Amino acid sequence: ISQVYVRVQRFADLCQTHCSSRSQVSTPMMALQSALSLLRCLSVLIPVFAHSNALGTCRSQGSSFIQLQPALNHATSEAQYTPVAVQKQMPEAGTGTRDIMASDCPHLQGGLKDFTGLLAGGNQDIVVPADGPYLLKVSVTLRSLTVPAGAELIFDDREGLMLSAAGIHVLGTLRLGSPSCPLRSQGIGITFTGQGDFGGTKSADPLDTKGLTVGDGGMAEMFGVRYAPTWTRLAASAAPGSQEVELKQQVDWEVGQEVVIVTTAWTDEPGNHENEVRKITSVSGSRLGLDRPLSYGHYGGPEYSAEVALLSRSITLQGDEASEADRHGGHSICTSGSQCRFGGVAAVRMGQENVMGRYPFHLHMLGDVAGQSYLEDCLVRRSYFRAYTIHGTSSSRVSRSAAYDISGSAYYLEDGIEENNLFDFNLAAHVHIIARLSDYDAGGGQGGVTVRSEPGRLVPTDATAVGFYCTNAGNRWVGNSASGGFSGFHFPTVPKALGLSYAGNEGYEPDKQELLEFDSNTAHSSGKVWNAHGACIYVGGRLWESNPGSGDLTYQTGRSEARQSGRFLFKNTKVFACRKGALFWGTKWYANKPDFMLEQFEAHDIYRSSSQLGETYIVGAVISAHTGNTFAPDLPSVSEGFELYDTDMQTILADVTFRNFNRPGDVCIMDMTHSNIYKPQGMFHSIGLSFVETPLAQRFRHVHRYACKSYHNDPCLNQCGLCPGLAGSSQLANMIDADGSALGWSQGEAILGADDSNDETNGRTNEWWRLDESCEHRDTWGFWACPTYGQRSVVSLYILRGTISSTPPVFGTRTDESVSPIGQLFHFGHNERKLDVGLAGSPMVTGPCCDIGWYLHLDGGALSELTIYLDQMVTTGGLIFSTAYPLGATLTVQRCMPNCAPVSLGSALQDVLDAPGTVYFVDDKGRLFLKLLHEGNGYFEAGGVKQLRNSNRWVGGKGIRYLVQSSSAGAVAFNIPAPLTDIAGTGTTTGTPTTMAPTTSLHSGASTTSTTTEPLSTTMAPSCTAAWGNCRQSECCTDPRMMCYEKDQYYAQCKSSCTPGINPDDAPEYQTEWSCNVLSDSSVTTTTTSSTTTTMTSAASTTTSTITATTIATTSTTTTTTTTTTTTTTTPTTTTTTTTSTATTTTTTTTTSATTTTTIGTTTTPVTATEITTASASTTTTMAPSCTAAWGNCRQSECCTDMAMTCYEKDEYYAQCKSSCTPGINPSDPYQTEWSCNVLSDSFVTTITTSTTTTTTTTTTTTTTTTTTTTTSSAPPTTATTTSSSIDLSTCAGKWGGCKDSQCCKDRGWQCFQQNEWYSQCRRSCPSDPQWNCQVLMP
After folding, report:
1. What is the pLDDT of residue 252?
2. Is 827 helix (H, G, I), strand (E, B) or coil?
3. Confidence (pTM)
4. Are 1168 and 978 in contact, with CB atoms under 8 Å apart?
């Protein structure tokens, strides 16, 4: 099948080529080529017929059709590409001046005097008299020419008419044609001869400069034939050996003229490029014949195609042939008070390298010209210094022009004060760096290198020469294309006016000016020189003068001081053959927002589409890892489509298509996890993503980087023993898929959060982003994917010691161990879902909100002063935050927005839930509960997505924060609160419950059994350390078989034995002596399981109850409890059983208010309905001591207490209870020895064959009254239904599973909804989709 597929696609390719070439056959050779192409395309079908029987046999084997994916070729590329960048293009043939009827021709007017009458001999200095216009009709050679005020010199329209001179100074008028009467004859122009002032002091005399100077009051008009278009693009690829090319537009070019076919490879340097110059041998509409075959292939595919530019004009300004030796060509300059209008003029061998002001075309200090000076349809070829320079000039334009083979930046805004100029439909190609640096990376950081003016490179930015150099964004760029150079377009940060423009503009700030227009521009074949961050379009770098106005320039190539202007909007932009398509380093906080916007953006054959800092978005884009361009051997071999930044960003991608990310290493979107201290908030959203020829596994990538190998100088750097796990930014990595399109699921919006686990984080972080049981583990991506149900968000806090009233230094340094508490955050009700706090001295945490409460447990106990900054927080709902304080402590809480106000003490948790962040509550366990809420926060919006703003820690110089003060501090119990109500409508979110068998009471009517299981709550000695952990501070161990043995004053470890001296099993970097002093023995772990079983009778077969998010139950209940305790002693041969029964009757009465007071012992505590249930019945169970806890050493026990764990062997000395194992060396293991991964045993089971004592408690509760529910919220109710029939849940479908046959779902709150007669699915609710009939199926 694959052979057939490839051959059919090849047939399509060849036939398309034939069809494109079958017309306009003008030579016998072209006819033969056309015939051969048809034969080739027909011949490939022959093997297809040979495979037809096999294909029929394959299909007869079954009904499923398997579509194989062969290597991408041109046909598949075109079929699956839909352009989004609709680029403007210049008008085609017929819109120029080649065929117009000439009128008002200067050289045809009456009364003209013959210029030759002024000549008395050779090598003269001629001054044109002011007694009438003079006409030059024959070629002449002069030493100099002056056209004084009042004088006028006109060129005749005569083939080969050339004026040669060392210098020309125009104070009157110089005319070569006019807009309505272009000079049509070829070879007309001016040749600049000699060396001028080369090698000496720069001359102030225009006649000694080897160029044309138009002075104050002077005017120069030059109009040759304006060919249309001056450049276009290939309509189809041109293969090596081709002597004919097809263009996208019809052209009016002429036989004998020269063209350049621009490279579509990545490399474009003077000695290594694929630009090709050829003469035209035939022109027929959009088809050109060439004088020689092409040496290289030039791509002309659906995504992008090579530019083809006309390199001939009827008027030429040129340096003499001797200019090449010293790169000192001619120049033209229009100075203050003059007017210059050039159209259809070529400049060849022009520009004087490293001589300021000596450029091919130069509008110099003209001020605002109101469109009266311009350059259109021109050409610069083989320039030694720039092409088109706009200097101190505003409201001019450069249109439909081309620049090829240019040293230094081509289209150049010089001093940064130039405004409202238009650059439209121009081409820059083959741009060369001047005095290339030996190193652009300086170790790979963002700052790049610093370059200063020097004799070999007068302007430091020419070390990064570009096609379009844009020192002031307040201009317009439309329809331009740039190939080659350091970048195609460059917008450096220029804080003050430069050079001559500084005088009189001292207060002007170029980098404050906002972009006027950037539309339909293309950049390619650049960004290769800077290995770390090279880009085809670059907004960054900084250029300044240490002494303003001096011309002594300094340039930092990389990230430097941020820009003052935002709102960079690029529309219909296309980049290809780049390292990065676009690079934007961001703006200052006060810049107008958004900072950077890409709309209708395309990036093809790139390493990375864009890198954009600040408040940015991409709306409407196509990003191709690779295309059908097989000609270029140097295109990036791996593509990372889009990389998130590390912190303080706001980024949205909307309606983006990723294509062809199917090679090893390709990935569409990846996070940035290179730091412990620069960590992400909830700062990335996507919506409307689509994927073409991209495997699911390559849509996302979570990058695992180690904390001790971070990119920043923090306490973990190179301290792999101290910080053996993953980086802090890795643990917080997250994205939001706003519509589920990236995930490819039907559950709507989702949070993607890092799947960093215990064995990757030294046991400190685990499943932090696993929000509930409906989450999916996309392990090939490295993320948990969890639905938001339209209500969840990502929020971010800074948690600091002390009560802080002004911006703390740690916001700048990002790390400070003296103010960053160390501990862990836990999801309410889940001790297995946790996050390390304080790693590397970072106080920042990010996580899910708002149905998931956060419980903070600090390693060193409660703090007397705590500040919680709401860096990114929801505006409604709020995050429920809890932390414990010593019993009897007096608390004071303030809410600062940013000015502070007291937070009042509530009488119950419900008071906190109901209030807008202005109430706190402390329960009988000493747990403080707060609702963190920032009603004044805003949103960043783009593409239909709203993203919470971050960086609110800076607001008002104080920050949005809560302050907590306690009268006492120190050790507190580890006591995670019960989970909050599950917003999905399934009651409470359960952890790892021990479910007890429900009790069923049978009556004459139908029986309904309802079982409520509370989550497992594990109470451990809060300051004790897990197996093999560092117990230097806690001095105790959670594992009863271990002791805390001291190594030295800095380290101790929980382990089973210790031998004083050096342990040879320690990693080489830790080969120091053990003292083996016992700091303390181990502690005991107690597991408490609570369960309530309620049996109700009803005449109906189904009971329906309504649950809301904030429902408080009020109950009057009489409960009879019978407890049976069975003690069993088991040996291999005998069993003895003793049974004791006790009956107890207890009456509990509650009220119908929003809060309920329950007396526990001698303590009266307000609790919610959830807590009443938790307190109703409890059992204490001692786990089998012979098995090992999660992540502990199970070498001796050979079993694990956690059912999800397996005891994997490392070697003869060590084994560990963990969820998975890969043989070999684990790079995150502090002890780099190999794992055998032999399974010693599976997890702990309830049947024990060794001598064991097992205590089992069974509680049966019969409720004789009903429940009255008081609803305190208007949230829509969720209806839960229980049926009386007995169902074998093992036969039912799981979440999102197909339930057509079983007609039932095993998960509570999920129902089997029918889509049609062929398909049904287990879901929480039925989608509002007309394709679903939503009938609920029941067995």
Report:
1. 96
2. strand
3. 0.72
4. no
